[in-house]
Amino acid sequence: MKEVGKENILIDDALFVDQWGRSKRKLRISVTDRCNFKCVYCMPEHPEWMNKKDLLSFEQLYQFCDFMVRRGIESIR
């Protein structure tokens, strides 16, 4: 068993479980940090944008999603 952060643990490199023992099967990915909706619940007042060169390519995003699916993720948004 390996610890991942304070709230999640990784068991057998396959299943993500939170601190209450609930399995995590959903993954949500933000493709970019440059959303123009400016929702108050997710956009800080003075956002600091990442450099475009630091964003993952579509191929890298696909590889990451594939990696997560092989470890138990069933839904990606």
From TrEMBL:
Biological-process GO terms, alphabetical: Mo-molybdopterin cofactor biosynthetic process
Residue stretches spanning the membrane: none
Gene3D superfamilies: Aldolase class I
GO MF annotation, one: GTP 3',8'-cyclase activity
Assigned keywords, A-Z: Lyase, Molybdenum cofactor biosynthesis
PANTHER family in the record: MOLYBDENUM COFACTOR BIOSYNTHESIS PROTEIN 1 (PTHR22960:SF0), MOLYBDOPTERIN COFACTOR SYNTHESIS PROTEIN A (PTHR22960)
Protein's name according to its UniProt entry: GTP 3',8-cyclase MoaA
Organism in which the protein naturally occurs: Rhizobium hidalgonense
High-level lineage: Bacteria, Pseudomonadati, Pseudomonadota, Alphaproteobacteria, Hyphomicrobiales
